[in-house]
Amino acid sequence: MSDDLQANLDDYLVQLQQVEAALVSEPNNEELMKLKVDLEEVINITKELIQSTLGLREPHVDNSASEEPKPVKDWKVIFFVLPHRILIEKRANFDMHAMSGIFVVKSVGDKCMAVWSKNNQLYEAVIDGISEGKAAVTFVGYNVTEINKLHLLRICENTQPKRYLWDSKPKGKSLWQVEKERRRKKAQKKAQRQKQLEEEKEMEKMKWKDFSSKAVSKSYKGVKKESIFASPDTESGRVGVGTCGISGKPMTNFISHEKLVTGKSSQLSL
């Protein structure tokens, strides 16, 4: 009982040393500072549990009930990977100081620690059914089935080992770094694509501008284009009469064309 708590305490002290060593290189890291505070709180709670267990008397064991299984432990401390949340369970007369719902039932067939009504101790069991906040469990190795309330079920240590805040930090940080890199590459690719589209759009715009300017001007070297509606050069000239460059000149006279008819001496006028 106290040996298990002492082993846990040694683990927490080692983790605290690792956090303090990391803070030497990163003194302003808020995550490491918060983790240090959590570990110190866990260490203090574990020390209090060790001191309290030293003053407890061992419970009287009735040797006549030899068919009853031996309890797994009298004390158990469980630490979950949840920020600023430490669940502590004291199983003396089943006085629970931790939050309820430590074990979350997922499906039938899960292993858990259930209460045997004969001595109110926890034993390994398998869930057979779930209904209205209760679960039917069968104790492993004894073929005994009982009904337990869901909030009394606890984690089975054989299938769900303890995890610590320090153990989960590197993995979580690594996953975040991967996600951050993926988002950065995605944003960079999107910006590059947007820039390429803008360049293509600007190029098409310049092509159309060049084409329209050529179509309007129709410029040729050595030829000066003038409007037919320009002001005449002389007083007798009229606007719009004649073509470009000859405004102000009188109208041209009609010239009659004659055609020579073969076999006739006379010419026909057209």
From TrEMBL:
Domain Tudor: from-to ranges: 105-163
Domain of life: Eukaryota
UniProt-annotated stretches for the region Disordered: 176-203
InterPro entries from the UniProt entry: Tudor
Basic residues composition bias: residue spans: 182-193
Protein name stated in the entry: Survival of motor neuron-related-splicing factor 30
Lineage summary: Eukaryota, Metazoa, Ecdysozoa, Nematoda, Enoplea
Name of the gene encoding the protein in the UniProt record: smndc1
